[in-house]
Inverse folding.
């Protein structure tokens, strides 16, 4: 009896393996939602084999972060395809080499080393979470290579080997806090996911509130992915019985529960406006605009920004990936960084690392959000905009800076980094110097 | 007074989510002893079923759309129950009494289900259909031959390769057809919106009670009554209890144990589907939804004591209330009111955040299990050794 069962079991498990192989096959084909187009096909100048420039694309194509990171890959691929269609860089086509970081930070480091050593890419576009960036940082520093990083982050870092095209806190969080203090109230409740970005962000906010006459009435952190927010809502009600501002740096699934249950508990945006720093167009779609309508977000770019460059960007993106897709801030930053790199290579006249690194500083680009410029501290100047969610899930821009704000990677509200700055154009200054 | 009621209500509403999620597992793990790590994924399937029902009802307009959730509950139950039935017949029944293998197999199944939801499209769906038709259909045909027993192994291997090959070929031929390869759900989370009558809340007791929470509490109670009635008052329930208590003897008395196993597992899975439907109103629906609940549900069943519904209820409510009291700082405030020493206050304020409350609850559960390793209501008698 048991003998028979075991045989049958073997058979079934082999069926299972076959089935999972089929599934995996489909995943690698369909999971990313895009396949690298042959760079030599249809280009202006036909290229011989090996006559292209290899760049690495290193994002999570599987795992929890795939949801967000695949959209960034779409934007990077679009920029590369556009550049290739216009004749490439230095007369050569760009060949993207995609690697999957699988939402696992050590894997990111491994794949980064693989891209550099084995594929001999000239630069890497990649990462989303701060954890993955911190994991690949030693690889890029050791090999003196080049990473372009597209997501807003907590700052407190300034590497010679990284170019950051997302916002630093002073280009996203600080203007939002100032605006809230002026328009929405002095009492703040801080909610965040329990990891480095929300914790650093909330440290900054607390210092800023203390300096500007606001008050932090409470703060709480949810473990990543946790969906039980009842205790937090009870705390908010207790701390702010007559309404007040909620500053939200939750990430991922917790946001969905938070907004759904806020509404159920009767915390409406007129009395309890929520300012989020990790909720963009894509997330609004997943949470449902019914729950978010009237709440706020702080970004540099929204799909609704009115510039000719953005109209073209949105139209091209929808034409390429489908009418139902939306564009958001990290995608725009990803799109920008490919072009900034291309301009730097063209100015340097080579893809060698050091000349490109030097040429990248000072490059400016007419981005969908407006003009941006790469600063000596390897971050870009950006326009800051506050948006309010409307019925269709896009944002009404309620406030924006006049021009662009310069990036400040070392935060001026945090004691340890107050007074420090970063400048890679001057060998005497470098990563961190007393300004 | 109203703070106390509010605290209890909030604790119970956390507890009811835990309970509805753990109810199916209490049956599958509690009664059958199957460590089903795919339980969360069965919930996830229920949540996706809710999403599909919602999208079917959307074009129908208002009076109908607000009722979609009523339809979604039985559909979620049926979808998860069918998948559960396939799992039991296809894999788990070969592994009864081998907990480690069951654990690995169900973990593998959970990975497969998650990836299935991410990449399922019409083509994949049809390919799997083609494979099943060829393989199982072929088996049925060949089984009629008189020398079946002798050629069984060779035929199965041959069929497996042939039908697998044909299905893969079919897949690759059609894989350029965009209409067929468009993913149903894709890797992104989808959005389930509660109907208008479930949004907002009532001020009946001097504090806001969200309708969604009330709905989940009522649904949990209904499920409990249903399960109780089924297990205690119906013929099949009697059989299930008999098989749980003594499989061999039940089998001798003519109870079809294999059928009972399949039914019990399907029931547990179906309840997971209902839970999925309920939590889709609170949180996000994505391939990883089930992962958020799996640890909590096991915790509830283990604390409650294996094979006892009352234990599961008490454990869920206890953990829910405790989590709320510690996490929201109510406990810390209570100690402030009775003027407890500063050290005690510091201690409770330190744990009064959501992440730290979890740590404390875990610690308490570990302590509890040291004192009562078999949970609140341990099974007595010989069955306890099984």
């Amino acid at each position: 009896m048991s003998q028979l069962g075991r045989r049958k079991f073997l058979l079934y498990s082999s069926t299972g393996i076959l089935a999972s192989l089929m599934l995996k096959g489909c995943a690698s084909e369909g999971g990313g939602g895009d396949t690298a187009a042959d760079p030599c096909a249809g280009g202006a100048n036909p290229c011989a084999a090996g006559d292209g420039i290899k760049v690495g694309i290193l994002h999570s194509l599987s795992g929890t972060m795939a949801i967000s990171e695949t959209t960034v890959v779409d934007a990077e691929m679009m920029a590369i395809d556009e550049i290739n269609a216009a004749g490439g860089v230095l007369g050569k086509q760009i060949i993207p080499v995609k690697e999957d970081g699988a939402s696992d930070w050590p894997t990111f480091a491994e794949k980064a080393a693989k891209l550099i050593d084995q594929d001999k890419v000239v630069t890497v576009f990649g990462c989303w979470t701060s954890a993955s960036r911190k994991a690949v940082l030693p690889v890029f520093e050791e090999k003196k290579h080049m990473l372009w990083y597209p997501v807003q982050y907590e700052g407190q870092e300034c590497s010679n080997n990284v170019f950051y095209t997302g916002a630093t806190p002073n280009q996203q969080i600080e203007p939002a806090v100032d605006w809230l203090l002026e328009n929405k109230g002095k009492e703040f409740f801080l909610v965040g996911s329990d990891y480095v970005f929300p914790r650093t962000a909330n440290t900054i906010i607390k210092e800023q509130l203390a300096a500007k006459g606001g008050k932090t009435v409470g703060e709480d952190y949810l473990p990543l992915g946790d969906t039980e927010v009842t205790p937090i809502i009870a705390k908010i009600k207790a701390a702010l019985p007559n309404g007040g501002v909620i500053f939200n740096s939750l990430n991922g699934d917790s946001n969905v529960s938070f907004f759904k249950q806020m509404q159920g508990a009767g915390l409406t945006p007129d009395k309890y406006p929520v300012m989020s720093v990790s909720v963009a167009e894509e997330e609004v779609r997943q949470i449902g605009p019914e729950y978010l309508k009237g709440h706020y977000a702080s970004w540099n770019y929204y799909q609704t920004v009115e510039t000719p460059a953005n109209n073209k960007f949105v139209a091209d993106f929808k034409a390429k990936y489908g009418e139902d897709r939306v564009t958001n801030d990290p995608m725009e930053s990803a799109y920008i960084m490919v072009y900034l790199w291309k301009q730097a290579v063209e100015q340097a006249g080579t893809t060698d690392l050091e000349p490109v690194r030097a040429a990248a500083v000072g490059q400016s680009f007419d981005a969908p959000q407006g003009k941006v410029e790469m600063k000596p501290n390897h971050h870009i100047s950006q326009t800051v905009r506050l948006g309010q969610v409307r019925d269709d899930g896009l944002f009404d821009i309620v406030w924006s800076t006049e021009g662009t704000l310069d990036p400040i990677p070392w935060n001026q509200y945090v004691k340890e980094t107050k007074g420090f700055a970063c400048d890679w154009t001057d060998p005497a200054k470098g990563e961190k110097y007393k300004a | 007074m109203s703070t106390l009621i509010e605290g209890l209500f909030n604790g119970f509403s956390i507890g009811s989510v835990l309970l509805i999620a753990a109810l199916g597992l209490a049956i599958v793990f509690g009664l059958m002893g199957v460590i089903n790590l795919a339980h969360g994924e069965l919930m996830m399937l229920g949540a996706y079923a809710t999403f599909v029902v919602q999208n079917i009802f959307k074009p129908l307009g208002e009076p109908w759309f607000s009722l979609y959730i009523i339809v979604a509950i039985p559909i979620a139950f049926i979808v998860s129950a069918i998948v559960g039935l396939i799992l039991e017949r296809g894999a788990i029944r070969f592994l009864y009494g081998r907990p480690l293998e069951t654990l690995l197999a169900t973990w593998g199944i959970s990975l497969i289900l998650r990836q299935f939801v991410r990449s399922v499209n019409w083509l994949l769906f049809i390919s799997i259909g083609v494979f099943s038709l060829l393989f199982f259909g072929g088996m049925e045909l060949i089984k009629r031959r008189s020398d079946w027993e002798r050629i069984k192994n060779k035929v199965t291997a041959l069929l497996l390769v042939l039908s697998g090959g044909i299905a893969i070929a079919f897949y690759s031929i059609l894989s350029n057809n965009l209409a067929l390869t468009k993913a149903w759900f894709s890797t992104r989370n989808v959005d389930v919106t509660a109907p208008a009558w479930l949004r907002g809340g009532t001020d009946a007791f001097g504090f806001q009670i969200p309708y969604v929470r009330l709905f989940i509490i009522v649904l949990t109670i209904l499920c409990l009554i249903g399960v109780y009635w089924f297990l205690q008052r119906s013929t099949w329930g009697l059989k299930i209890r008999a098989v749980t208590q003594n499989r061999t003897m039940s089998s001798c008395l003519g109870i079809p144990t294999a059928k009972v196993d399949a039914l019990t597992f399907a029931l547990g899975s179906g309840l997971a589907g209902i839970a999925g439907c309920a939590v889709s109103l609170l949180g996000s629906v994505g391939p990883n939804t089930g992962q958020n609940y799996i640890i909590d549900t096991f915790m509830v069943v283990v604390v409650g004591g294996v094979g006892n519904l009352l234990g599961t209820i008490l454990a869920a409510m206890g953990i829910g209330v405790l989590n709320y009291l510690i996490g929201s700082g109510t406990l810390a405030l209570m100690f402030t009111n009775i003027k407890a020493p500063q050290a005690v206050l510091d201690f409770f304020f330190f744990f009064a955040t959501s992440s730290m409350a979890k740590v404390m609850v875990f610690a308490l559960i570990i302590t509890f299990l040291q004192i009562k390793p078999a949970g609140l209501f341990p099974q007595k008698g010989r069955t306890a050794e099984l």
Notes: Chain B touches chain A through 71 residues (CB under 8 Å). DSSP finds 17 helices and two strands in chain B.
